Amino acid sequence: MGRYILKRLALMLPTLFLILLANFVIVQAAPGGPVEQQIAQIEQAKKDKAMNAAMSPNTGYQGSRGLSEEMVEAIKVQYGFDKPAPERFWLMLKNYAQLDFGKSFFKGESVTDLIIDKLPVSISLGLWSTLLIYLLAIPLGIYKAMHNGSTMDRATALLLAVGHAVPVFVFGVILLVLFAGGSYWQIFPLQGLVSENFDQLTVFGKIKDYFWHLALPLLASTVGGFAGLAYLTKFSFIEELGKQYVLTARAKGLSERQVLYGHVFRNAMLIIIAGVPAAIVSILFAGNFIIEIIFNLDGLGLLGFEAVVQRDYPVIFGTLFIFTILGLVLQLISDISYHLVDPRIDFESR
Q: pTM here?
């Protein structure tokens, strides 16, 4: 297994390179880059100033003028676009090798500082929601598989269908309206991860305040995410329960608990473990940025979304770099978990 891990770690570098290259080409080709946005802002400001001057008497207004070539070139130099694209990509790779992600075009701060500042919010929301989803979905899926067709199975199927059908942002807005001072009850905080007086609270008070702010975002993301996993767990266990080795184990006189956790569990969990990396990345950076917007949680997902809208290239590629490395590491952890759950799976021999 050690040789396989070393191979996977070695493959991460070319994989990361190809992903960054593909996204660099796509992002650079997209219209409305930072240079164009800056030029448009300056021209709009000049038009507004000229219009005000034209409406005022005795100003000697002569009409608005476009930007000079020198000013356009200065803007290109400011954003580094005076260099050809291959040179910009090479400089980006050299800086990334030193963990230097540059400065944000529009926020004026170091991308590293921005990521470090936003990362705790995304990690808090992502890890807690993932933990809750798996703690709820897997036992429920096993129960539904063991009692397939029962009244409880049908009742929970209806709840799961509703949870799966309602979009996360709709459920988040409903929770805000009902429990955060919208039109009914002011029970939970409306926004933020902690209160303004967080530093003045006791240790127990800080823990309580932290989870009090996380209650609604966690509920929204958990309800929106655990239905699919519960169904996956159920059908995975149902498939294993119908196999010959289960009938043989029962014929030997083993109890249902021994059959379930001694034989079925290991095989049925393989497909669930395989989906853990994708689920974590999806919850952490794809689904939760909507939650961050709704509940005004200043996290990494929201930072990346704003960077795409503003064409803030250093932030886009910095967050992409973090997302990619995290995804590759989680995929490796998934393969290792495969082997730990079922030692018969040997990746080195393949």
A: 0.70
